[in-house]
Specification:
- It is a single chain.
- The chain is an all-beta fold.
- The chain has no helices and 42 strands.
- The two termini are 32 Å apart.
């Protein structure tokens, strides 16, 4: 399998990303210092055909992005009044060419209605938002991709307070309370009726922070979560069957970090039941982990400070992975890597301590009652924004060249200036980077075109890779200093 080409640095802070059927990436984010949210499309070759902000006098905070089966883009978030701090959930749909199809705000009669979570599937969007009921219970609703409301309900009890929502394969959804001390789950069908409701415990504790829920190929439901009564930072997974009961022998724990500050895991599951996770560790590092359908670790790597804290994970190019990370200083990274073969640059091998916790579910009584909610048309002021990606560390394939058309560097070893001979069909040079053997990126001063010569006088002696993003793709040339 060829290594995916996408390997980019974005100076703006990306919040989430998803992939179109063409393997192009769509992402949402925020331009630092500007109170407007970004929406962009990044082609498979790293170019950005369109990007814009949903600017408004109120502050827009985009949180989630989804792609429909016909490649429409759904973005959801919050519309925050800059004076009163009142929050209205926001849902918008954009086509693959970057045109806004519709935008709606959600009202359930409350003065503060922050959006908590969204999911998409089978032509509808499910949202969890704060409702008007006492104790800040959640309104759960289904919105069609036409921009109309299907139904809205609220839990009949004052607890649990559901704040996460995940769609399952048959378009049922699971709402989860990830706040201590509860560990409650409710499965709701497409009509807004309860299928089952469970209290979930691990080792006798309900203090579970659910990170992700997904449908496995065998029809079971995968839970990925943390438990705040366990020392260190261990990612736990377990499977539930159709009725919501724990499947024996499927509970596993992976101690990805023993210091602190580890959660925020992105999760994907492939057609073979393999599960890949990427989690924040220590606030500045990232741990990538893949396990097989039986929970056995296939590989685990940790990125130390580069490229920084994890922000998400998605499918890319069939079973390959798209990793979205932040650098801690406002920028973001997009990196594609092979399924089962993590990007070796920027990472170090990591050995995980695994455990087998005891997980149980017990039935609870939950009813859903209709909620009076409405969708209101919203007209954002769209402003085009220029996004300029650069090249980062990581491993990607070198673009295919015909015989005789190669990138060459001289002299080797280099002393002060490294000269680069590029093939005639390379086209414009978009960005360059120098990567050392440890995966660190070094600054360059070549006006973004290595054919003008690259100053390497500041490099310590050793082996390096010159990485060039040209119009025809990404290229790597090794050299010595």
């Amino acid at each position: 399998m060829a290594q995916p080409q996408l390997d980019l640095a974005i100076t703006d802070r990306l919040q989430a990303a998803a992939t179109l059927s063409t393997n192009d990436v769509v992402a949402i984010g925020k331009r630092i210092g500007v109170s407007a949210s970004l929406v962009m499309r990044i082609n498979d070759d790293g170019t950005v055909p369109w990007s814009f902000s949903l600017g408004d006098e109120d502050r827009i905070q985009l949180q989630f992005i989804h792609v429909t089966n016909s490649d429409e883009i759904i973005v959801t978030g919050r519309l925050v009044d800059s004076l009163t701090n009142a929050q209205d959930p926001l849902v918008a749909m954009i086509d693959a060419s970057g045109s806004l199809l519709w935008a709606r705000t959600v009202e359930c009669g409350a003065t503060n209605e922050p959006l908590m979570s969204t999911s998409y599937g089978s032509g509808s969007i499910h949202l969890a938002v704060v409702s008007t009921l006492p104790y800040r219970s959640k309104a759960l609703m289904r919105v069609f991709t036409s921009g109309t409301l299907s139904w809205a309900v609220v839990p009949g009890s004052i607890s649990p307070h559901y704040d996460q929502v995940w769609r399952l394969a048959n378009n049922d959804v699971i709402y989860a309370n990830r706040l201590s001390p509860n560990g409650d789950l409710i499965r709701v069908n497409g009509s807004g009726s309860v299928v089952w409701a469970k209290h979930f415990e691990m080792n006798g504790s309900g203090n579970n922070f659910f990170e992700h829920i997904a449908t496995l190929p065998n029809g079971n439901t995968l839970l990925a979560f943390w438990n705040n009564t366990i020392p260190g930072n261990t990612l736990f997974t377990v499977e539930l069957d159709g009725p919501g009961d724990v499947v024996p022998g499927t509970a596993h724990g992976y101690a990805i970090d023993t210091v602190g500050g580890s959660w925020g895991c992105g999760t994907v599951v492939d057609g073979d039941g393999e599960r890949t996770f990427t989690c924040r560790t220590n606030g500045t590092d990232r741990t990538d982990l893949q396990v097989d359908a039986n929970g056995a670790v296939q590989w685990a790597f940790r990125a130390n400070s580069v490229p920084g804290t994890s922000a998400g994970l998605a499918r890319y190019n069939d079973d390959d992975l798209l990793l979205l990370s932040g650098d801690g200083a406002g920028g973001s990274y997009l990196e594609a890597m092979n399924d089962g073969a993590p990007a070796p640059a920027c990472t170090t091998s990591d050995t995980l301590l695994t455990t087998s916790p005891v997980c149980t579910t017990t039935d609870i009584t939950e009813t859903l009652v209709p909620a009076v909610c409405a969708l209101n048309t919203f007209m954002p002021s769209i402003t085009p924004v220029t996004i300029t990606p650069g090249v980062i560390c990581g491993t990607v394939g070198t673009a295919e060249l015909s015989a005789g058309e190669e990138w060459r560097v001289h002299p080797v070893p280099a002393t002060d200036v490294l000269w680069v001979d590029a093939p005639r069909n390379a086209g414009a040079i978009r960005s360059i980077a120098i990567i050392d053997a440890a995966g660190r990126a070094w600054p360059t001063s070549s006006a973004n075109d290595p054919r003008n010569g690259v100053d390497v006088s500041m490099l310590p002696p050793g082996a390096y890779v010159l990485r060039v993003m040209a119009q025809d793709g990404l290229h790597q040339v090794r050299f010595m200093r």
